Amino acid sequence: MNITENSFLDINTPLSTATVAELVLAVQNGDQDAFGELFERYRGGIVALAMRRVRNADEAEELAQDVFIQAMQKIDQLRVPEAFGGWLRRIVHRMAINRMTRNRTAIACDPETLEATCFAVGTPDSFAEDREQAAVVRDSIDRLGDLDQQTLKAFYLHSKSLIEMSDEFDAPVGTIKRRLHVARKRLQKEMQDGVLQAV
User: How many DSSP H helices and E strands does the chain contain?
Assistant: First the structure.
């Protein structure tokens, strides 16, 4: 089927067999049923991504609904119809940050209440050991190459998923997995070398 920028889907083409690009173009031309098909195709993934962001099932459902509402309102701004999935993920990311920032409220309490409600698990020695280990890991990461540092920090420090890293680094997920595997091995070797030098 030959679709031009200003055409609608062929009336005989079922929505379920249309490509994402065809559906996006149809929505941009006013076909609301095409948006319904996009919603059905992407809803599960968007809810899962929202869940990873907000860590609450009800909020994830609400965030996903808000994402689709915004996508429907702004779909005319999407210039590359094939990029609809990545565009939706960016909306989820941005709206999740906005939601978490808005919902953060500071709770003030007196020191006695804070002390009564908080308790530490472990001893001062174990805390010191944990801090030393964290310092060794940070120093070892800092001695790695730029790509290894970026990969490890994105995954472990910024809690990014492989898909998010794939988007950020403009590389396939398989490549990101390989980079992460290689970076872990290099970090392990760097930490072992650091321990040997300290001894």
Answer: 9, 0
Q: Say how many Å lie between the first and final Cα of the chain, rounded.
A: 70
* Each residue's pLDDT tens digit, 41-53: 999 999 999 999 8
Provide the angle, in degrees to the nearest 10, between the axes of the packed helices 20-28 and 84-103: 70
Task: State pLDDT tens for residues 5-42.
Answer: 434 566 566 888 999 999 999 999 999 999 999 999 99
For residue 172 the two structure tokens come to: 């396939």
Report the distance separating Cα 134 and Cα 119, nearest Å. Answer: 22
| Residue position matching structure tokens 């490509």 | 19
Q: How far apart are the C-alpha atoms of 161 and 154, rounded to whole Å?
A: 9
| pTM, full prediction | 0.48
Task: Report yes or no: 176 and 165 within 8 Å, Cβ to Cβ.
Answer: yes
User: What amino acid occupies position 101?
Assistant: T
